[in-house]
Queue: 3 jobs
Job 1
Amino acid sequence: MPPCRPAKPPSCRPKPPGKKASLDALIAEFRTKHLKGIERELEFFRTRPSIEVAIRHAATATDEDGYCFDHQFRILRAARLQAAAILTSAKSRFRACASFHELHTLLSDLLSPVPGLGELYVYDTALRLGTYVGLAPDFVYLHAGTREGARALGLGRGRAYLELHDLPGPLRALSVDEVESFFCFYKALL
């Protein structure tokens, strides 16, 4: 496996603080600038030919061209390969999960011993594998930039995740995984 190259266009980089935009305006911008890329990534995982291929791409955080997804390109290759081995050996357990939360918990338990893999890696890997096995998040998981975005709106202090009803009205029009991405993209502007 070649070294992980940074994502083609960096998509979740902090944006410089500027003029404060309304939540509605930020959501509209998110929909036009980012949703297609998010949907494309999820479709990539939904259409992998086997669980082994889905695991390889999810664990190594790479797309079809060998580029790393932007959240993971700094993770050491050894950690990603160790994750791939762990997840491959546990592949039968993924389909036994009845919910995304169960899958997320399983991956968190399996991957917690691997140095260098944090909560963002676990969430993104669970989202990608969940997409393959047909499990979508029911909650907005709070980690890294997502936690910062939620806090900027006064949400989620001390919590591992938010439910849809916890969110301001305009955000309820997005799916919970879209809200997770929105918080990441717009944390500096919230």
Job 2
Amino acid sequence: MESKTKLFGHPIHPMLVVFPLGLLATAVVFDILYLSNGNLAFPTASFYMIAAGVIGGLLAAIFGFIDWLALPKNSRARFIGGWHGIGNVVIVVLFAISWLLRWDNRNFIPGIPALTLSLAGVGLALITGWIGGELVYRLGVGVDPGANVNAPSSLANRTPVPSDVKRPSHR
């Protein structure tokens, strides 16, 4: 099933998810670094990374939801995609609450509740990321129907060549 929202021939949702995943996971790493060495730059960076990650997660969710709506009703992909989306919304909520708990704190130092929510968010992201992989790599969601090892560039307006057809040699 091909994605409904594309940019330069590629689905937008997977392009966007790398930002919140990277930002939120790195925020947790920075919190751990702060706890290990007390450098106040780490919780400040973490605070702003969480804010950017939450915004990026909400933006990615819009495009994921559009693609989810295009999945056939009563299909395994729609069921799994629903859990993927719900899980990712929970992740964004966990990090948003963690961010709010840091708001009034001097130097944005995370307390135990903020850290717990962030760690839970990263743990859940490992699960929803795997589910997203299941959607793409097992169920073919978001994959171009002409995809194969010899397909032309997504920027080309050419018909894909099936993988079992040999291309002519240009010598």
Job 3
Amino acid sequence: MWFGLVLSGIGVAAPAASQSVPVLLYHRIGPQEGSIESIPLETFEQQMRYLAEHGYSTVSLSGLLRFMRGGDAPAKPICITFDDGWRSQLLAVPALRRYRLKAAFLLFPERGIEDPYGDYLRWSEVRELADDPNFEIGAHSMTHPWDRTNNLVTWMNGPVPGRGMVEVHHEIEDSKHVLEQALGRPVTVFAWPMGWYNDALLSIAREAGYQGVLAVGAGANQRGDDPFRVKRLIVDGSCTLAQFTELVETHRYPRCASGKMPSISNTP
């Protein structure tokens, strides 16, 4: 839809304000065959080129939250996020910078930074990302509990041996504090491990001082939606460019070569 804009006596078409913002979610980047958790670097490069060449404007997570609270967004807005802090995500940075795209990296600092048993980012690399004005750092818990019977929701509902409310608060609150202390800047966004949460967990995140919380799920985020229930679309690395285009334009999941469909459930 277009509105007429009169400028110096000349009628100029101006795009209507955006009504929704889709958020993309990536995990690993690498040369291996694409899967629900990993995207080949060449495929990622093609996707970023597509966004740049087709007029998409990336918005930061902070900009997304302002939009959801009633602010404006550019024409064809989109938000790009990376979960878990895999070191391979550094391979995506040149393409993001080449096409001047904004992105956010959601990290779990206790186990997912400097972990000698996992291929995660180093603190020096996290600080370099944080220093780039086009990149943001958010929290993704402290240790990323991901098992269906052993996660933030089950810890709260109990009983899970050795896990309860103390550990829940540690995962949500301390991930913010640790990242803020290490980076010297506010961390205002939290992402649920596996996208699993409940209303009680949302209350803890609010009380911790986060301005928005990310989950997963089909659809885009509308002006006026709850910024503590941000929907994100998982990008399956086995999708073709045409299927990626379908995801970006319709905000619904195509069935890609992996044969897997991302879960749309917020509970384990």
